[in-house]
Amino acid sequence: MVKKEQELRIELAACFRIFDYLGWTELVYNHITVKVPGEKAHFLINPFGFHYGTICASDLVKMDIEGNLVDDSPNSVNPAGIILHTAIHSARCDINCIIHTHTDSAMVVACQQQGLRYDNFYSALHRGIVAYHDFEGITVLNDEKARLVANLGDKNLMILRSHGLVGCGATIPEAFLNTWRLQRACDIQFATDSCGRKVNPIGDEILEKTEQLLKLQHPENGAFGQLEFAGMRRLMDKLDPSYRD
Predict the structure, then answer these.
(1) CA-based torsion, 69, 169, 119, 133: positive or negative
(2) What pTM does this model have?
(3) Structural domains for the chain
(4) H helices of 140-203, where?
(5) CB neighbourhood size of 119 (10 A)
(6) Across the strands, what pairs with 63?
(7) For the chain, which ranges sit under pLDDT 50?
(8) H-type helices in 23-121, by residue range?
(9) Alpha carbon distance 115, 60 (integer Å)
């Protein structure tokens, strides 16, 4: 278990560096967590006050499912991160990694009443798989947990209205690719709206066909996100492998 935890620490630290490279940062805010395998429900989270571009494996903080510190880390944790992640980790045993972002285009889509439209290549991949949660202010109150979990349901993606995105997965690579694809859908919707021109609609028949075609691109028995995450991690190793420390 010690070896597995260290591997997860390095993989999660790499994820933070990848997010920084992609520009998915918000000063020292936002958070990504991953469950640590073992008998007890523990997870790793980024320390509050650390920019994603500086986070190393040894910086990560271990917490229990109630939001209490487990290790002797001197670092603190964002209270909003505790509420969001303990809520989902407690309710969904199939989810091991949870990502929360505040990117510009995702927040634009989150602020729109219609939310995500299914009229571009990436948004067409998301019909029926994105949940929504109404804005309740900064996520620091325990009573919001039940509503977060109820609104997420059995989905792995959620748009927090007027707020941002939540992406989940059984692994860090899966959660990364889920988040990346939804982010791209938001990027394109934001860009097309800024043109002020009519957007070509995508019919239900094509949307249904796209769901089937996606299974050919990503077979259910495949390791979803592994290739993409590994490619980005190799780039991080080339640019700055200090995340492994």
Answers:
(1) negative
(2) 0.94
(3) 2-244 (3.40.225.10)
(4) 144-152, 172-195
(5) 16
(6) 43, 69
(7) none
(8) 79-91, 104-111
(9) 33
